[in-house]
Amino acid sequence: MFVSKLIVSFQLLGSLSFVLGLVLGLPVIQVGFNDRTISKVEADMLQIAEHSWELGTACEAEAELASPALSVFRASAFPPPTHLNPAITGNSTAMIDIATKADFVYMAPPFIAYYGALAGGAVGADLLQQAYDQCRLYRNYLRDPIGLWRHITLGDGTDETHWGTGNAWAAAGMMRVLQTIRHSEQAQAFQSQQEDLTNWIHEIVSAAWQFQQANGTLLNTIDASPWDSFADSSSTALLAATTYRLATITFDFSLIEFANKAMDVIRRSVDDDGWLQNTVDPETFNTPSLPGEHSPEGQAFVLLLHSAWRDLAEWMVGALPP
Ligand SMILES: *[C@@H]1O[C@H](CO)[C@@H](O)[C@H](O)[C@H]1NC(C)=O
Ligand SMILES: *[C@@H]1O[C@H](CO)[C@@H](O)[C@H](O)[C@H]1NC(C)=O
């Protein structure tokens, strides 16, 4: 953590933890993105994000990237400052217009939990419990025995396939709820809920990586055969981000290799202009983005991956004895 106070570029951070990994036997993490690429990915995201959930995800990505001290992944999250530097808040009013679609677990429970952590007391505890219960109930309905979640069940337009992005939303959403509870003043009273969330996240990411393709990508339908589905870099990026986050809090590095392979294919999938290639069309769910079209959420997921990678690298550097 003390190293984070030094001005180190992300590249240097990556090399440092790479070397430390070799020397100390810590897991070796993948080389990161360079700062110029990340700026382009970010600018592209802001240019094309327009739907409520895209703007909400973009805001979350901005928080983790540019204001990590305010994100729920840091102990400094609560209480947040009462006054923010306007440069930090940016266009975050979009957060108000948050939507609840199949991607529900990423959208609603983290918000409920955050609200609960802010409220504190009995009301706050109630809200934290509700955020947890929403995850639990969604899992009850959507989870299949192999550990992956179906896309949409009950009601109209059901989709029983194990959609990559749906599983990524669920794992990443539960991760935000978990981290919010952990950094709230109620953390002690919510031990069993934290354990459950940790297990449920692990269940999704460990199941998903069993189907990782040779070059590191996941398929849009995670467990389909390659000729029945197609490579999807969006879900690959978000599941890798969640895997890095999980390792940072559990110290279980058994899935890092998969995340590293995913990071490698994502780095190779960002073109010179900062656009993530090989994404699913986020509006159809089941066709690749058309040539020249890009995924706003895919752009955000690259930033979430970069931020998760950076935090793990920082943790590894900070783990050195003083
Ligand atoms: C906020 O939105 C305005 C208008 O769309 C845009 O010009 C500006 O660049 C945005 N600011 C940030 C930080 O994205
Ligand atoms: C990775 O492999 C898949 C096939 O499994 C292919 O469709 C995709 O284009 C490859 N990605 C890169 C960046 O080479």
UniProtKB/TrEMBL annotation:
<dbReference type="InterPro" id="IPR012341">
    <property type="entry name" value="6hp_glycosidase-like_sf"/>
</dbReference>
<dbReference type="InterPro" id="IPR010905">
    <property type="entry name" value="Glyco_hydro_88"/>
</dbReference>
<dbReference type="Pfam" id="PF07470">
    <property type="entry name" value="Glyco_hydro_88"/>
</dbReference>
<dbReference type="GO" id="GO:0005975">
    <property type="term" value="P:carbohydrate metabolic process"/>
</dbReference>
<protein>
    <submittedName>
        <fullName>Uncharacterized protein</fullName>
    </submittedName>
</protein>
<keyword id="KW-0378">Hydrolase</keyword>
<dbReference type="GO" id="GO:0016787">
    <property type="term" value="F:hydrolase activity"/>
</dbReference>
<dbReference type="InterPro" id="IPR008928">
    <property type="entry name" value="6-hairpin_glycosidase_sf"/>
</dbReference>
